[in-house]
UniProtKB/TrEMBL annotation, chains A, B, C, D:
PANTHER family: SGNH HYDROLASE-TYPE ESTERASE DOMAIN-CONTAINING PROTEIN, THIOESTERASE 1/PROTEASE 1/LYSOPHOSPHOLIPASE L1. Coiled coil: none annotated. Pfam families: Lipase_GDSL_2 (PF13472). The lineage of its organism: Bacteria, Pseudomonadati, Bacteroidota, Cytophagia, Cytophagales. SUPFAM superfamilies: SGNH hydrolase. GO terms for molecular function: phosphatidylcholine lysophospholipase activity. InterPro entries: Ester_Hydrolysis_Enzymes (IPR051532), SGNH_hydro (IPR013830), SGNH_hydro_sf (IPR036514). This is G-D-S-L family lipolytic protein. Residues 26-208 form the SGNH hydrolase-type esterase domain.
Length: 221, 221, 221, 221
């Protein structure tokens, strides 16, 4: 009797999971916080999935907070991500870890950036989430590497690429994609206005560009 | 039968705890890392307890790592503190959170300092540890508040005092004690050499001074 | 004949100088740039002199530019000060030399601050100007030395006091006066709103307070 | 009689100048301060001129001081450069203007860097010196623009290139030359050890490389 009841419960739970849409959490900073607004990259991804008739297969959840660095993600991971039992987590962080070195003296040392990132991945994987790493796109869109913090942003992006390789995780290399796009579409070497409004945050073109880049990562598997 | 066995086990475990010396962890940065060496404040505390015939009542454990800030403590708390099942934890942190703003652009914002500190306390208390907060003593020993980062260090110390009050926790106010000592013993307004070797790290007098200040907190209860 | 003409010319020039009002230049940053507006401390000083019937004895000239540090003053001294052949020059600088360390990584090292200040004084004195040194008042009005940059601002103010003593120059110690005022009038330990609008720039009370402090320096000799 | 004496004096002075070796001052920071030592780039330039039989045609003078930024050059220009009545002045500055933003919060804002540089050129030209501008070579030799301050250093180098163009002055583009050299000779993307000992200061190869680059600028005209 009891065994039978247990089996039925298990089947029901499994069914709930099977029928449950795939839950995708976007974990990041102000860029991701804005992404759930109309025109934001998460909103666009949801629309794209709906247009392809996959709207009910996915549940996209924004978990971005302005000013966040890698260690802020670590602090709020349990409440804001793990509590949602995600199937997939995009980690899109790093701009503030670099930027705040110059604006407020409170950036993140490279070795600690990697240390917290590793710990974050370990905990997300322990909760059975598929983790997708993103490189921080830009702090300034000039294409000749003369944006003030290009050197550091290149370094941190490389650390993330190394991490993806080391942990065998998918990499959504926004920084590389943004640079390639700007090399074609920013002949005037402007520091903003191509994919961003203000050197960092995405304009409409930028939000669509990120949505396009992330789409295949969302629908993989 | 089973109940009896359980009760016996419980008694045995309790007995083990009762006989176990009180375990005190000192959780901090390079100042605490150096404190377990000969002449360090933890070594001195151990010696003081032994001299008073209380050597077997306490087990003092250093858990300091150079360069640590509040969020580094949070990251390694489980492995380095909770795993040791401490009865008491001194949290002695804050110098690098302020200092690194100037030396490497990687200090800690005040609001995030408090946020991580709160989370740390909550987890330590959940593990039944008695938590004792320490203010960061000095970055420079000049007594006229002209050490470069005195303003910020005063602010962070006040945040810790407020936190102790809000959480009803004992406060070991090293910053206040160091200033009072220097006002009496540093008539030349020197920036180092009174209680520190280099504006930050403790000399022999400084280690004894800290040990004296902490002694009553260790033996309380 | 020629000698006679020369003597006449000399007398005429001297007369022009004798009748000329005493020219006082206020050389500084944004605080001084705003001081020539209605309600500003220079405007108030002019009004005070007029009320005492001394309006025609003095010509007060603002030479403040926002964001200036000591070396900016040195660069534009010839055009903006010496060209006006001043009798008296107030040097009111130092806030940005300290502040910009934190806001943009472009403050001024203490030893270079002194070096440029010395060179500035030497050139102003060579042009027969009486030089009056001012300490930078505040970056934050809290009275417990917990404004973030109090330590550094205290240090630079002390360097200016030492300089005044070494060069035997009058010192208008705004920093000391502001602190004394706040100790009496800022019981809530607020960081702005007592003498400043925004921790740095003067409100009406602050402008009057500075005008009152400077008045006797203007009218001395 | 008097006219004759004057003419003779004039001829003698002219002769002195005609026979005088061309005086070349290297005006810069610690890189140039070290350049007069054995093996340094100025010492090498002198040796190269001697080997070509031009040793008596040139007098090379080092005027480098460690830690100098553009405004430090401006402050000491009269004593250290103009007093030597140079025919040619190499201005080799910019590393500390960028570097100190990160190491001590006391770098130089881009607009002020240009302002002081313009003023320096104007004064040097007024003294009839031929001015040669150099870009700051490297802070780190990695070739993928991931040295932390590459972005800023690229920006300041571009400002110097623009300045050379605007003022129609010869440009010794060390930064471009160093990058080209490293792209060929630093396949391991090391941050030091190719042309520098420590990411900034020149090793033997670096000193010879700079001497080779500067040689034609010295002997031009």
């Amino acid at each position: 009797m009891r065994l039978a009841a247990l089996l039925i419960a298990l089947v029901m739970v499994s069914a709930a999971f099977i029928n449950r849409p795939k839950r995708v959490v976007f974990f990041g900073d102000s860029i991701t916080q804005a992404a759930v607004k109309p025109g934001g990259y998460i909103t666009r991804l949801t629309d794209m999935l709906t247009q392809k008739g996959k709207g009910s297969d996915y549940e996209l959840i924004g978990a971005g907070i302005g000013g966040n660095k890698i260690y802020d993600l670590y602090l709020r991971m349990e409440n804001d991500v793990l509590a949602k039992q995600p199937d997939v987590v995009f980690v899109y962080i790093g701009v503030n870890d670099v930027w705040h070195k110059r604006t407020s003296g409170t950036g993140t040392d490279a070795n600690k950036f990697v240390g917290f990132y590793e710990a974050l991945i370990t905990k997300l994987q322990a909760a059975n989430a598929r983790v997708i790493l993103c490189t921080p796109a830009v702090i300034g869109e000039k294409t000749d590497f003369s944006n003030e913090q290009d050197g550091d942003l290149n370094q941190y992006s490389q650390l993330i690429r190394d991490l993806a390789k080391r942990r065998n995780l998918p990499l959504c290399d926004l920084r590389k994609a943004f640079l390639d796009y700007n090399l074609k579409n920013n002949p005037g070497n402007k520091e903003q206005g191509i994919l961003t409004t203000d050197r960092v945050h995405l304009n409409d073109t930028g939000n669509q560009f990120v949505a396009d880049l992330m789409y295949s990562f969302v629908t993989a598997n």
